[in-house]
C-alpha cells in the first residue's frame, strides 16, 4: 500500500516539546532550549505543506511527567477541533517518546494522524538527523489517515503501540522487537505495509486532571501514581510494598522471562490487588509475549493473584496503559472489576498464551483507509 502526498495543500500543526531535536550545548552538556520555530527552520517543507507551530514546553524527555503528557493530549484534541488541520507532528525527546506516543494513541479517535519524531543528534549540528526526521514526519502527517498515533524515525514508520527505544545513540532509535514496523517513508512517498492493532479509543480524561506541568496547586486532583518494579536474582518484594506505601494505585512488575518472579513477590502482588491496586506483569526480555507457563512464583501464580499479563507491551508502555485505566475513572468512583476489564482491553494481545503457543501469533493486515 503506497500513500503519496499528492502535493495538494495540507495544513500541519507542529507541537514542540523539546528533546535532543531542540537541544543546544549549555557549557557542560546538551539541554532542550530551541523554540519550535527554530527547530522547524532546520527542515525543508514537503510540497504543498504549510505549518503552524505550537511551543508547548521545552524539556528533555527524561523529565517528562504525566502532567506534561496530559497537557499534550489536550492540546492535540484542541488542535483537531479545527477541521482545517490535516495532521499533527509532535517533536519530542526520544527517551520517553514511546510513553507519550502510547498515551496519545490510547485516546486517539480521529482519522487524522499524530506523528511523533525527534533526533538522536542535537539541534544545529551539520550531521544532525533532526531535519530529515522532521521532514519525514511532515510527509507522513500529510499523507496517511486512520493509522492512529505514529512514530517516524530514520525513514521508518512505526505504530505507537509496542514501539520502544532500542538504540541509545544510533539513528534508527525505535523498533517493536515483537512486530514489524508499519512502513517506510522516503523519496517523497510513504509505504504502509500493515495496519496497527488498536483497542477502541478512550475518551479524554476529566479536564480537572489536566494541570500545568511543574505547578503545585494544592486544590488540583492528584494524578494517579503508577510505579514499575523490576525483578532480578535476589528480587525483593519490599519494592512492591514500598510502592503501595507511597500511594501507588497501579504497579507494573517487570518480571523475568515470560512473566515470572518468586512466591514472595506473588504474595506482595496479591496484597496489592487486595488493597485495590491495578497490577500488570511485563517482562525485561525485549521480545515476545507474556505467557502463563510456570508456577512457584511464575506467571500462573501472578495471574491467580490478580495481576494482568501485558501481551507484548513492555513495562514503560504497560505503565501508561495502567495510568490510562486509572484516569478513565473520571470522578473517582472505583469499580475494581470494571477497571480491570478496561485495563485488559487496553493491554489486548495474548494475555493467556498456552505453552504450545507461547512463541507468538501471526498478524494480518487489511486495507488502509485512504485519505478522502
Ligand atoms: N535523543 C533524545 O532526544 C534524548 C534526550 N535526552 C531526550 O529524550 O530528550
TrEMBL record:
Catalysis: reaction(s): L-asparagine + H2O = L-aspartate + NH4(+)
Cell wall biogenesis/degradation in keyword set: no
Listed EC numbers: 3.5.1.1
Enzyme class per UniProt: hydrolase
SUPFAM superfamilies listed in its UniProt record: Glutaminase/Asparaginase (SSF53774)
Protein's UniProt keywords contain Hydrolase: yes
UniProt-recorded Gene Ontology molecular function terms: asparaginase activity
Keywords tagged on the record: Hydrolase
Membrane-spanning intervals of the chain: none
GO biological process: asparagine metabolic process
Gene3D superfamilies recorded: 3.40.50.40, L-asparaginase, N-terminal domain
Domain Asparaginase/glutaminase C-terminal, first and last residues per copy: 225-328
InterPro entries per record: AsnASE_II, Asp/glu_Ase-like_sf, Asparaginase/glutaminase-like, Asparaginase/glutaminase_AS1, Asparaginase/glutaminase_AS2, Asparaginase_C, L-asparaginase_C, L-asparaginase_N
Record's protein name: asparaginase
Origin species: Streptomyces gardneri
